[in-house]
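tl;dr need the bound structure. longer version: we got a ligand (adenosine-2'-5'-diphosphate) that a collaborator sent over and nobodys looked at where it sits. i said id run it. heres the input, straight from their email, havent touched it
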Amino acid sequence: MRSITDTFTLNNGLAIPCVGYGTFQTPVPETKKAVRAAIAAGYRHIDTAAFYGNEAGVGQAVRECGLPREELFVTSKVWNADRGYEKTLAAFDRSLSELGLDYVDLYLVHWPANYLQFGREAARLNAETWRALEEVCRAGRAKSIGLSNFLPHHIDALMQTAQIKPAVDQIEFHPGWNQRGVVRYCQDEGIVVEAWSPLGRREVLADETLTAVAAKYGKSTAQLCLRWVLQHGVLPLPKSVTPARIAANTQLFDFEIDAEDMRTLDKLDLIGGQCARPDDVEF
Ligand code: A2P
C-alpha cells in the first residue's frame, strides 16, 4: 500500500480503498463539511451507519463533491432495532433514501443479535437479517455485504444458512485491543477486517509506550496506530472533524514499523476505546 486510495480486494473481487473516513459521532450539522474535507484530503472511502443519524450529510457530500460516484466507496449499516428480514429491507431503503444514492458499496449488519438478549433466537435473527442483505446485494443495491462486531462463533452460525459469504467484518481494533483471534479467523476465511476506533478513542494516543515508539519514527501516535492497523492487514477507519488531523491521518505510507516495535504494540492490553464484547452488550 502506498496511499489511502490503494485497495484491498474483497472475496467477491471488488476493490475497497485501504483507509476509510469514519463518521461515528460526527455531529449532523458538521457532517457534510467534514466529509467534503475528507474527500478533498484524498479519502475515497466513507463509513457511516443508520445509527449515526448523519447519512444525509454523507450523501450530500458524496453527491456534491464533483467526483463520479464510482470513484467513492460508501458503507452504511443496519441498526439493531431493524434486525430481521422485512425490517432490514425497510431499513436499507431508508438508508439509501437518506443518502440520496442508488446504491451503497458496502452494507453491514451493525451488531450480531447475541445470546444474552435473544437466547436461542439469536442465530435465527442474524440469519434473517443476513437474508435481507443477500437480497439487496443480488439486486445490485449493495455491491458488497458484510458484518460488524461479529465474533467467529457468530460467523460460523451465520454460515450455516448464508448463501453469500460476508466480505468484511468491522470490529474495534487498536493498540490495546487487538482481537488477535477474530482477525486471524477472518483473514483465514478471506474476510477483510476493518478497524473501528483505530485510535482507541484518544486515550491510546497519550500512552507512554506508543508515544516513545512514535517519536522514534518521527510520526504522531495517531499515525503510528493507523500504520499498526495496516501492517496487520486490517483496514483503518479513522475519524476526525479537524481538517489538520483529517489530513495527518492519511500520511501513513512513508514509514514502516519494525517487527520488534510491532510486537511491543501487540502486547499492550486493555487500553483505550470501548474494549466492547459483542456477546455482552445489551443494545
Ligand atoms: P477530532 O475529531 O476533534 O479531531 P476513534 O476513531 O479511535 O474513536 O478516535 C476518534 C477521536 O480521535 C476523535 O475524537 C478525534 O478528534 C481524535 N483524533 C482523530 N485524529 C487525531 C489525530 N491525528 N490526533 C489526535 N486526535 C485525533
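gonna send this back to them w/ a short note. The first strand starts at residue 7 and ends at 9.
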